[in-house]
Amino acid sequence: MGEVRDAVRSAPKAPAAVPFRRLDAAEREAWDRDGFTLLRGAVNAATVERTLDAVDRLAALHGDPHLTSGTAFERVNVVEEDDAFLDLVDHPALLGAALDLMGAAIQLLVSTVTLRPPSPYPAIRWHTDDPSPYFFPRAGGQVPVWQLKCAVYLTDVDDVDMGNFVAAPGSHLAGMPRPLPGLEPVLTKSRYRELPDVAAAVPGARQVMARAGDVLLFHPALWHTVAPNRSARVRKNVWYVYGPLWMRLGDRVASDPALVARCDDVRRQLLGATVGAHRSSLAPGDDGAPLVRLWEGETYDATWRRHLDALLDEWWGPGRPDIDGEAGP
Fold first, then answer.
1. 222 SS3 class
2. What are the counts of helices (DSSP H) followed by strands (DSSP E) for the chain?
3. Contact between residue 106 and residue 270 where contact means Cβ atoms under 8 Å apart
4. For 195-254, how does the pLDDT look when each residue is reduced to its tens digit (9 = 90+)?
5. With 0-12 CB in 10 A as exposed, 13-18 as middle and 19+ as buried, what is 11?
6. 231 with 147: CB under 8 angstroms?
């Protein structure tokens, strides 16, 4: 376990002082076009080293022997395992990206450590991160960003076939490209290993190359897979999945009360501890969702009203009646 803090952390800073990292123009353009984007050097070397040490301790304790056989190691809800993982939950790059793409009424759905050792086989079939057995409902052929998956690279993946994340750019909008003739089994749960070159099977597929400290973000409707790891290195990542406050947590029923008690208000929201005596997670207000005020620079209710007015303007047009009885803007 990481070092236990002696007291509850201080309250969140004022909005102007919060160092959220927004996506820059190139990162946002890649996100919109491709369905994924890479934040280069987003996590500094000291944080990478601290997190890598925690990953190695976790793997040694729970599953290191399996790595020698080519079997990946994965463990969920790691924010409760070590403070190195907890401290990344509100990292300016990860949380800033989630706020930029989803707004501030969010929580942490899943935290996972993944180690992918050398193996001649692809790790998984081509797939999306839609819920199963159904795909998330499309509206006009598109899927909203109902969750955001962020991967922090702790080791370099600087060449192809190192256990790389493989994506079909633009498939979050256009759907899965048809595999080359005879290679359709890359979509199946059992036969994808018969076709070890999963990237070449799909026209336009791209293996993502990254350095330790880079952060990968991708859309839940993006079609992707994992390339074989034909290198001599174990690929090591920690993953954080952010989603709306109304969604059920993905790796725990609730966060450990002792952990929640020593976190500040923002981390409490991210850990899903938003429900009070008089509000639900659907509308937790400023007390349950302090990130809204920090991110928007206005209260929870004011943010709701601003978005409602924008919808009414879109639906009803200029000169609409205001819902409070006055003429609209």
1. coil
2. 10, 10
3. yes
4. 878 999 999 999 999 999 999 999 999 999 999 999 999 999 999 999 999 998 999 989
5. exposed
6. no
Per-residue pLDDT at 13 exceeds 70 = no
Element containing residue 226 per DSSP (H, E): strand 224-226
Alpha-carbon gap, residue 212 to 300, rounded angstroms: 37
DSSP bridge partners of 37: 217
CA gap 122, 72 in Å, rounded = 11
Among the listed ranges 5-14, 22-31, 124-133, which one has the minimum average pLDDT value?
5-14
| Beta carbons of 222 and 172 less than 8 angstroms apart | yes
**How many residues are listed for the chain in this entry?**
329
Cβ contact 219:145 at 8 Å: yes
What type of residue sits at position 77? Answer: N
Residue 254 carries which side chain, given as an amino acid letter? Answer: A
Report residue 168 as tokens.
Answer: 């079909």
Angle (CA) 173-179-182 rounded to 5° is 160
Asked if pLDDT for residue 19 goes beyond 60, the answer is yes
Question: Would you list the DSSP string of 95-158?
Answer: HHHHHHHH-SSEEEEEEEEEEE--BSS-SEEEE----SSSPPPPBTTB-----EEEEEESS-B-
Q: Is the pLDDT of residue 139 over 70?
A: yes
Instruction: Please list the helix, strand and coil fractions of the chain in percent, rounded to the nearest 5, in that order.
Output: 30, 20, 50
Both tokens of 24, joined, read: 């820059």
**Other C-beta atoms within 10 Å of 215: how many?**
24
Whole-angstrom distance, CA of residue 152 vs CA of residue 16: 26
Q: pTM, whole model, 2 decimals? A: 0.87
Collapsing DSSP to helix, strand or coil, 9 comes out as coil
**Is the pLDDT assigned to residue 312 strictly greater than 60?**
yes
